[in-house]
Amino acid sequence: MIFSFILISSILSLINSYDTYLSKHFINLSQATYCVSSINNWNCLTCDESIKPEYIIEKHGARAIQGYDILTKSIFIAFRGSSNIQNWLDNIQISKISPYNDSSIQVEKGFYKSYQYLKSDLIINLQILSLRYNTNLISVTGHSLGAGQATLFVFDIVNDYNNYYHVLHFYNFGSPRVGNDQFANFFTYFPIKPFRVTHYYDIVPHLPEEILGYHHISNEIWYDEPNINYVNCKDIVNEDDTCSNSCFPTHCTSFDDHLYYLNVSLGNEPQCI
After folding, report:
1. What pTM was computed for the model?
2. With 255 labelled, which of 131, 175, 191, 239 sits at a CA distance of 20 to 30 A?
């Protein structure tokens, strides 16, 4: 019994530690969502051989890929960011809605709407994949708008489907703020740490603004400009003003930093063949 407890504790400790190898794995997967529109064309520069794509859901400009990840031995769900970052930023709706049973939990209306286009298909496919691969473990990732959708998906899995599925890994990149502080606080009780990766002066993690009542989920990992060194931020209670927030409001205006994470160029063109 003591050995089993130590083993389980050691496994959880590893899962709850930021892993640069896994982070690179998931940023490649996030980039692949921009390139691949058919599961029969898994041949982009970031299309890892350990990934077995099974479904691509695309509706009203939102896209997600689902399948099996051999590396993590889990079902994966990867959400694509906007195909036009500038246009997406210009059209963020800002207004919050309360779509959950707990009306104090609020999320940004536009993010929630785009996620809803995908949700029902994602849940149906998840059931099929779970039986096909005999696992209830899932890994979730996404970049930009896709990171926001991924956050909403993880919330739903943990809140509504926790008896069926368990989130093994959740790495997102360049995420906007998705909801209010009650929404963000939910993730502090999450059994597995989410990792919210940010890059230097990326503009997107500063939108929508805190003054409007938005708050990031915890466990920010802030990379320097060359994508070499990073800081494990202290943001369990509030956002860490020594991390990405340190450049707000005068310097956090970079689109280039938003489209370049862990030395991977993100978007429709740079690494799609």
Report:
1. 0.92
2. 239
Tell me, what's the pLDDT at 86? 66
What are the structural domains, with CATH classification, of the chain? 20-265 (3.40.50.1820)
Q: How far apart are CA 264 and CA 270, in angstroms?
A: 9
Q: How far apart are CA 124 and CA 47, in angstroms?
A: 24
- Separation CA 227–CA 263 (nearest Å): 6
Of 29, 61, 31, 64, the residue nearest 48 (C-alpha): 29
Residues 114, 52: contact at Cβ < 8 Å?
no
Tokens of 148: 């926001």
* Cis peptide upstream of residue 270 (ω within 30 degrees of 0): no
The pLDDT of residue 84 is: 72
Which residues pair with residue 170 across a beta bridge? 140, 194
213-247 per-position pLDDT tens digit: 999 999 999 999 999 999 999 998 889 999 999 98
Amino acid identity at 73: K
User: Parallel, antiparallel, or unpaired: how do β-strands 74-79 and 137-143 relate?
Assistant: parallel
| Neighbouring-strand partners of residue 59 | 62
| SS3 track for the chain | CHHHHHHHHHHHHHHCCCCHHHHHHHHHHHHHHHHCCCCCCCCCCCCCCCEEEEEEEEECCEEEEEEEECCCCEEEEEECCCCCHHHHHHCCCCCEECCCCCCCCCEEHHHHHHHHHHHHHHHHHHHHHHHHHCCCEEEEEEECHHHHHHHHHHHHHHHHCCCCCEEEEEEEECCCCCECHHHHHHHHHCCCCEEEEEECCECHHHCCCHHHCCECCCCEEEECCCCCCEEECCCCCCCCCCCHHHHCCCCCCEHHHHCEECCEECCCCCCCC
